[in-house]
UniProtKB/TrEMBL annotation, chains A, B:
<dbReference type="InterPro" id="IPR001077">
    <property type="entry name" value="COMT_C"/>
</dbReference>
<dbReference type="InterPro" id="IPR036390">
    <property type="entry name" value="WH_DNA-bd_sf"/>
</dbReference>
<dbReference type="Pfam" id="PF00891">
    <property type="entry name" value="Methyltransf_2"/>
</dbReference>
<dbReference type="InterPro" id="IPR016461">
    <property type="entry name" value="COMT-like"/>
</dbReference>
<dbReference type="Pfam" id="PF08100">
    <property type="entry name" value="Dimerisation"/>
</dbReference>
<feature type="domain" description="O-methyltransferase dimerisation">
    <location>
        <begin position="1"/>
        <end position="65"/>
    </location>
</feature>
<dbReference type="InterPro" id="IPR029063">
    <property type="entry name" value="SAM-dependent_MTases_sf"/>
</dbReference>
<keyword id="KW-0949">S-adenosyl-L-methionine</keyword>
<dbReference type="InterPro" id="IPR036388">
    <property type="entry name" value="WH-like_DNA-bd_sf"/>
</dbReference>
<keyword id="KW-0489">Methyltransferase</keyword>
<dbReference type="InterPro" id="IPR012967">
    <property type="entry name" value="COMT_dimerisation"/>
</dbReference>
<keyword id="KW-0808">Transferase</keyword>
<protein>
    <recommendedName>
        <fullName>O-methyltransferase</fullName>
    </recommendedName>
</protein>
<feature type="domain" description="O-methyltransferase C-terminal">
    <location>
        <begin position="106"/>
        <end position="271"/>
    </location>
</feature>
Length: 336, 336
């Protein structure tokens, strides 16, 4: 928060525009006291983000001067997500784990459901969450579609496809004669999804079916996509979903899953999913869930009547160090 | 919070008593779901706190098995302090820096003042804060009194001495014929201070004067002690306090200060004061303040008419790594 506060107060932007400003000049510019500016900048100097000239008393960006704007924006989005959707909520982590509900959302927002419910009613939560989700999707989808095959003319179901972005991407990346992609999600998403399809000029190729994955999933598909979804649930519900998908697929049909995974060697230090997701899912978003190891998802798919044909974890070295989800793609074929 | 939650849920205690328990057994024992236990323990395994036997599925304490109980209790007190007095409050750090007030206390507790005011009305804040403050005092006072001299029979003032613990320690560590120690603090502390003096059988040697350091400090003292206090204020108020102390001392009198300090080389990694205190004082306790470097306190003392005679920072290597305040003692004589 010391770092984020230096951004929120505008200290970093002032130093970018005017290197060498003193604590007093910065305080005047951003509307606080010089003492507070000095205190907050101590840690920035310790970490090498900001430089301090002891003789002149002036501050200047140090490492922060060399961060590309796109990288900075993305990192700030992550910091803001954690601030708004997690920092206060995690105070209630233990109670959330005990009850299987997001106690922090209830205490802080009076919201009884999940974060995904609460973003509809609370602008601050939505503003912190949506830009990051869009960034994650924009970064992950090209990688995902590059690693899966969708047969020409296939009937595709995008499970829990929200308002249709996944269906649009699927059609754009995998276009073929007769290809049809159906978004399946709660009925209240239908109007916005159809509007999105029309806006992209894809209304003839994309459709929407309303329903709940735990009730019944529509049938007759060659391919089912499950993106950013399985990690939201405990084992029993993941198995229910996978069995439902099994029923929705034609014989020989395929499911392609995009999901963050823990490393097989849990002690690896280059994968931050373990540091972030357990507390985030249990205490901040769902009151349950969390990613698994790739091998666990493979085993669960086999238990549900699939044969895994491909399973690849993204190389952590390809992911900017501020980005938390290390994703995997898992493809599996419905057993005869 | 993932770590603290494993303690709060009782998972660590169960594993200490019964190494090898599975996630299901642990979940039954502590009243949550096996899925949540697994998720929360992933990070414990990554960090080497807990071991997981992949074959049996059993968990056992790893590094946590070798932590002395006293060390563990102290570290848990720190974690609980940060959870209760800082985690949610820091969401409002930027607003606190802008307003010079603890916005988090107001938003979360409806409390208009400082943390030191709020602990009187809010049991959870007090329960998190007081045991830690007592630990800090118990650890710091022997070191502090070992490094200062109080003349035989001196008249001593313990500035902002709260309910008298500092006066009691001063008498016990520095007893001499005629030694008299006066606690100076807000009038509402008097009754409890006097009761504490009586309980220790020291009512003949200790006394209490009610007042506010920013109004007028009683005069005629040979020695003034300022412990855990200067770091609560911005520069202007620290100077007001030091000038007031100057006025309260007899010619040639001495002030002895115990205060956390930042290292002279701010980039040193073995002093966590820089990581913790700016955000803690501005966002969680005072809406202002924070420690300074030892050299800054020395300079401020010289500005206020003192000659510094001794200034020692505690060796960070002597402090357990979970303990945040790296303290210094500074002694100075009132100039003629």
């Amino acid at each position: 928060m010391s770092l984020l506060s230096c951004f929120e107060l505008g200290i970093v932007d002032r130093l970018r525009d005017n290197p060498g400003m003193s604590a007093t000049e910065l305080a005047d510019a951003v509307g606080t006291k010089p003492d507070a500016v000095e205190q907050l900048l101590f840690l920035m100097v310790k970490e090498g983000f900001v430089a301090h000239d002891e003789t002149s008393g002036g501050y200047a960006l140090d490492a922060l001067a060399h961060v590309e704007e796109a990288d900075l924006k993305r990192a700030l989005r992550y910091m803001n997500l954690i601030k708004v959707t997690a920092l206060r909520q995690l105070f209630y982590l233990t109670e959330s784990a005990r009850t299987g509900t997001v106690v922090g959302l209830k205490e802080l927002y009076g919201a009884g459901g999940t974060l995904y419910d609460a973003v509809a009613d609370h602008q601050d939560l939505n503003d912190a969450w949506l830009p990051l989700m869009n960034t994650v999707t924009a970064n992950a989808d090209p990688w995902f579609f590059d690693r899966i095959e969708i047969p020409s003319g296939a009937q595709v179901l995008d499970l829990a496809g929200n308002t249709g972005l996944g269906a649009i991407h699927a059609y754009q990346y995998k276009k073929s004669p007769g290809l049809r992609v159906t978004t399946f999600d709660l009925p209240e998403k239908e109007a916005e999804a159809l509007a999105n399809f029309r806006a992209e000029g894809l209304a003839d190729h994309l459709s929407f079916v309303g329903g709940n994955v735990f009730d019944s999933i529509p049938t007759g598909f060659d391919t089912v996509l499950i993106k950013h979804f399985l990690d939201m649930f405990d084992r029993a519900d993941v198995l229910r979903i996978l069995r439902g998908v099994h029923g929705s697929l034609n014989p020989g049909g395929q499911v392609h899953i995009l999901v963050p995974v823990y490393p097989e060697d849990i002690t690896r230090t280059d994968n931050y999913n373990v540091d972030f997701f357990p507390a985030f899912f249990i205490g901040c978003t769902m009151g349950q869930g969390g990613p698994q190891k790739l091998s666990v998802y493979q085993r669960w798919l086999e238990e549900c009547g699939f044969t895994v044909t491909n399973a690849v974890t993204k190389d952590a070295a390809e992911i900017p160090p501020d980005v938390i989800p290390v994703q995997a793609v898992i493809s599996a074929t419905k057993n005869a």
